C-alpha cells in the first residue's frame, strides 16, 4: 500500500516524527500522519497550516507500507458524534492506547475533513517501522485558490 504526506521540502527526505501532540497522539508519542491519497494529504496540510506558508517549497512524500503489516482500524461509528469539530478526547485516548500497546505499527482512522477517506498514522517506535519505506518524493504546489 502507498500512503502520502505533504510537508515542507526540507523535511521530505526522511521518515521522522516530531513527537508533538495532535488529534490521535500525545506529546512524546512519535508518529507520522499520512493519508490514503494526495487529496486528503493536501487538505490535512491546509487545515493545520491555516494558509500560512503555502508559498514555500513543499513535497509529497510517497511511503510504502507492506501489506502484511497489521493495522488497527477505527471507524467513524466508533467515535462520538462531534469528533470532527476539533479536540476529541476519545480520539486522543484511542491513539494513546494504540501507541502504548505497541501491537500495531499502523493506526487507520477516518479523516475529519472528507467522509470515506482515511489517514494512516505510523508508529515510528514500533519494531516493524523499519519495514515502512520512503520510496520517493514529488514537487507539490498548493493551488492559490486554496
Helix-strand pattern? EEHEEHEEE
Helix content: 10-25%
**Assembly context of the chains:** single chain
Inertia-based shape: globular
* Coarse structural class: alpha+beta
**Total number of beta strands:** 7
Beta-strand portion reads: 25-35%
C-alpha Rg (nearest Å): 15 Å
Physical arrangement of strands within the biggest beta sheet: 2-6-5-4
Structure description:
By secondary structure, the protein is α+β, with helices and mostly antiparallel strands. It has one domain. It is 17% helix and 28% strand. It has two helices and seven strands. Strands 2-6-5-4 form a four-stranded mixed beta sheet. A three-stranded antiparallel beta sheet has the order 1-3-7. Strand 5 and strand 6 form a beta hairpin. It is globular and about 40 Å long.
Describe the SSE topology:
Blueprint: E1 2-8, E2 31-35, H1 38-49, E3 58-64, E4 71-73, H2 89-101, E5 106-110, E6 118-123, E7 133-140
Parallel strand pairs: 4-5
Antiparallel strand pairs: 1-3, 2-6, 3-7, 5-6
TL;DR?
The protein is an alpha+beta fold. Helices cover about 15% and strands about 30% of the residues.
Q: Keyphrases for this structure?
A:
single chain; 146 residues; alpha+beta; three-stranded antiparallel β-sheet; 2 helices; 7 strands; 17% helix; globular
Amino acid at each position: 500500500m502507498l500512503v502520502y504526506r505533504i510537508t515542507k521540502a526540507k523535511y521530505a527526505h526522511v521518515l521522522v516524527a516530531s513527537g508533538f501532540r495532535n488529534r490521535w497522539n500525545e506529546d512524546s508519542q512519535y508518529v507520522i500522519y499520512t493519508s490514503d491519497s494526495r487529496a486528503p494529504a493536501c487538505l490535512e496540510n491546509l487545515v493545520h497550516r491555516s494558509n500560512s506558508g503555502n508559498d514555500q517549497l513543499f513535497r509529497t512524500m510517497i511511503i510504502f507500507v507492506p501489506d502484511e503489516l497489521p493495522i488497527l482500524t477505527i471507524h467513524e461509528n466508533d467515535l462520538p458524534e462531534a469528533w470532527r469539530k476539533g479536540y476529541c478526547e476519545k480520539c486522543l485516548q484511542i491513539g494513546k492506547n494504540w501507541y502504548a500497546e505497541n501491537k500495531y505499527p499502523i493506526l487507520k482512522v477516518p479523516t475529519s475533513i472528507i467522509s470515506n477517506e482515511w489517514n494512516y498514522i505510523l508508529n515510528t517506535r514500533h519494531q516493524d517501522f523499519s519495514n515502512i519505506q520512503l520510496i520517493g518524493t514529488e514537487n507539490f504546489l498548493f493551488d492559490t485558490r486554496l
